[in-house]
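Researcher: Re-running this chain for the archive, since the previous output was lost when a drive failed. Same request as before.
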Amino acid sequence: MGTIVAYNLLLLSLVSMSLVPQWRNRTRCSVLLTASLALGIALLGTVGALCGSDDVFCSAQLLAWTAFVHYPVFLAGTAACLYQRRPLLACLSATTSAAMLLIGLDAFLIEPHWLEVSRATVSSEKLSSRIRVAVIADLQTDAPGAYERGVLRQAMDEKPDMILMAGDYVQARDLGRYAELCNAMNAIMHEVGLRAPLGTYAVGGNVDRAGVWPLISTGGVVVFERTSSVDLGQVVLTGLTHADSTDTTLHVAARPQFHIVLGHSPNFALGDVNADLLIAGHTHGGQVRLPMIGPGLTLSRIPRPWAAGVTALAPGKVLVVSRGIGMERGLAPRMRFLCRPELVILELLPTRRASGHDDTQGRGDHAGVQFRQTIGPVEPTPADFVPHARQRAHESLGEVDTLDLRAQWR
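Model: Regenerated structure tokens:
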């Protein structure tokens, strides 16, 4: 925090000092002086942010302060200095300042809670009936409340047959505070009634504390504390530990049924994973996506086009990476830009019902995904709870123990 305060005071001083000569010479202003000062502020702000901290998220916050506070102030002040002698340049400065402020308004106040429901259809000859899956990834909050409650209610409104939770539920450095947040999230999940006929399943993420994070589970959530599989009849679900989900050389054996592998990090998709559907979160879609560039930071080893949406890795093998519900916390800037949070709804269909149309071909967000905006919270739909189960696994994922829960569904 001290670094952030010192950086802002320093940059504010530089902006103030750069405006003084422009104001004194406003009747005979120099375009070269204005351009030099604008470039200098931008360079100093960027270099200071990148070198001011070893924490990448702290550097990102410093850059955000530069882009959405200090630089717009400098441009607005420059416009005031130039409006008499250089009205066109003054108009350009004022317009750029306003645009940056509007982008900041969208990134910090609008997009972070502007939920989208993303839909994709996956067909397979291994399926005998339709299964609707709700994917909830990266709730990642430090203050569970109305937003998280609304998202979970939206998930229940979709009437899923299965709910998959891809890790990162609450985030806090202090262990005591972390346990409090887990209990608060647990209360919300219990209030909403987060349940589905084929079960609700959760894996851990990188911000989830070992030995503590399963507190997020209600009586109806199966928590994968170890890598293992659950036999659901026409579907086998394998849940990965966070460590296994980051392994780019991971081996997962094939199953005769439709095989879903759920992990937090999408890195496991680079390994020898014999499954029909791979589901992950972690990337937040980059959280900030730039036109024609894509995600700025994914913190993963997968190709950038895989960082959000649906990707057909091979015939009959699909990767789905959710942009997540929440945001990075701690020192990271609480922002999203061109990367709205999403609730993913997957329709798993038998091939005979897909009419020969494969919605999973392609790369990125537009591969078989339809978007719509959330219509506000709704009442949860009653369904049967799934008993909590602890899983056991061998070191090789090709030999994981399988827990058959089919007899427990009513």
